[in-house]
Amino acid sequence: MADAKSETQSSNQMWGGRFASGPDAIMEEINASIDFDKKLYAQDIRGSIAHATMLAHQGIISAEDKNKIVAGLETVLKEIESGAFEFSRKLEDIHMNVEARLATLIGPAAGRLHTARSRNDQVALDFRLWVKEELQKTEKMLTALITAFLDRAEEHADTVMPGFTHLQTAQPVTFGHHCMAYVEMFGRDRQRVRHAIEHLDESPIGAAALAGTGFPIDRHMTAKALGFREPTRNSIDTVSDRDFALEFLSIAAIAATHLSRLAEEIVIWSTPQFGFIRLSDAFSTGSSIMPQKKNPDAAELVRAKTGRINGSLIALLTVMKGLPLAYSKDMQEDKEQVFDAAESLELAIAAMTGMVRDMTVRVDRMKAAAGSGYSTATDLADWLVREAGLPFRDAHHVTGRAVALAEQRGCELAELPLVDLQAINPAITDKVYGVLTVEASVASRTSFGGTAPSGVRQQIAWWRARG
Ligand code: ARG
Fold this sequence. Notes:
Blueprint (H helix, E strand, L loop, with lengths): L1 H9 L14 H7 L2 H4 L3 H17 L5 H20 L11 H13 L12 H37 L4 E6 L2 E7 H25 L2 E2 L15 H7 L4 E2 L3 H6 L2 H27 L7 E2 L18 H24 L13 H25 L1 E2 L1 H9 L5 H12 L3 H18 L8 H7 L13 H7 L8 H14 L1
Parallel strand pairs: 3-4
Antiparallel strand pairs: 1-2, 5-6
Helix pairs in contact: 4-5, 4-7, 4-9, 5-6, 7-8, 7-13, 7-19, 8-11, 8-19, 11-12, 11-13, 12-13, 15-16
This protein binds arginine (ARG).
């Protein structure tokens, strides 16, 4: 009797039947996932309630047992949410922690919950539900960021700034247009999120260990109860698939990459040398030694978070690579990557939304920079094509000579006297000065998708109509 007791204590209560003794300490250390998968408690309990309800509906367990199970699970949920629940590493993961507590609360009826189910389909369900909710949250957060950019674009549809290629002054653009470029990027991220929600919207529960079950379960019923479109079609694929996690991480990596580009621009723009924006105190820090400094730490950290998020994608791709079907314990390594990436992405989006809303745009500095660096040289070339009938290549050459002359004189293109321009090409008239200002330059870029303020307002209206 005493022996039997110690045997049940030391071997696992879920599969103790076959095991004479408990695991080595290091086995417990490497095997346990409770420290991180306890995050899935709400999804686990929701899944179990749906499963038990279906089992009773199908006559697989009694209504009485189902009622006990559901009431017990609700108590467990409350215990976890109040912080009273004691998680145990001996019980390995969230599934067994919940079930063991249920057994203590309601007795033998708890043992019927795991009928026609395995932890393999259970974890696939819990994690999918979690990722689905995270994607829904991400969609909302991206919408807030997009809205922040739309508001700034509207405010600055006419504000001129230098547009860059190779980070060299290229052509004048409007700050509104630049903001709308980010709206496009984050709009694509949001589309990817929406598609991912559609892709994962199938319920894994009922695939059991890998082969399905002989019990007359109704997977359509559990799918519906859990808010999925339909059940998954192949039980082997169901327990071996982590595409939903990989898709989340790929989307997160692309979005983080976008966020890092924005972060980098904020870092550059807020330097005294550029001075295009001023960050609010809310999103910068001071230096402990240099009193004059205001550092864009939040932007720098967003830029850095991309490293973690991209790392998580590579980590999980590498875990999944070469795994034979169906479930392998390797897949337990999926959660920490996703949880960490999700937390980093949320922080990064929130910080960027705050910065975009808060930053002061220095219109005067942008305008001054927009006119420097011969940014309207292309406008001169285009004018020569339009008004003087030159082939573009010749116009490019003429303009090059004008730029060289201005450079030599240390002045802007618009400051070159007409006689000097005419010495380069006699077809030039004083009308040319009308296109050499930055305002005229941006206003002329009316091609679809171009930087003219009218075009920027069209872009804003297109996005506003789509929410
Ligand atoms: N903790 C496990 C995981 O996260 C749950 C599934 C375990 N299944 C198994 N057959 N050992 O993947």
